[in-house]
Design goal:
This protein is mainly beta. The protein has 2 helices and 6 strands, in the order ββββαββα. Strand 5 and strand 6 form a beta hairpin. The termini are far apart.
């Protein structure tokens, strides 16, 4: 384990709603992107109500596949929780926790909501009804 790492936990699961998205950041080698997101989830502490906001870094196609319209969308994320040591402005040694996403699963988008069975977005049913009663004969072609 690195000197800079105090704890290293694998496969940390987070689920909730996307609260905010940062801009895409290109890798230094120009071969991909990363993006920081914030996931809003309910508190797991007994007796504490409210939301908990968890910053997560997503990479590659997971990063490029997120858009501003995805804010509020359900998300499940498996990632690596790790710590790092840094020195603050006053010279004190501090530790920060971070999650790097390994896999994300997005819930249905707002446009992916199931249709009502009476809806006809393509208009096919309406066209068929406007043509009048059908002829039961087969078409010759």
């Amino acid at each position: 384990m690195e000197d800079n790492m105090r704890w290293k936990l694998l496969d940390f699961d987070v689920s909730g709603k996307i609260h905010s998205l940062d801009q895409l950041v290109p890798y230094s080698n120009g071969q991909g992107y990363l993006r920081n997101i914030v996931i809003e989830t309910a508190s797991r502490v007994v007796g504490v109500e409210g939301a908990v906001y968890i910053p997560v870094t997503v990479f590659g196609t997971d990063a490029t596949g997120l858009y501003d319209s995805d804010i509020g969308r359900e998300i499940k994320c498996t990632g690596r929780l790790h710590s790092r040591r840094y020195v603050d402005k006053l010279g004190n040694v501090r530790w920060a926790l971070a999650i790097n996403a390994q896999a994300i699963i997005l819930g249905p988008a707002k446009t992916d909501e199931p249709m009502n069975k009476d809806e006809d977005p393509t208009g096919i049913k309406a066209m068929a009804e406007s043509m009048g009663p059908g002829d039961d004969e087969d078409l010759p072609f």
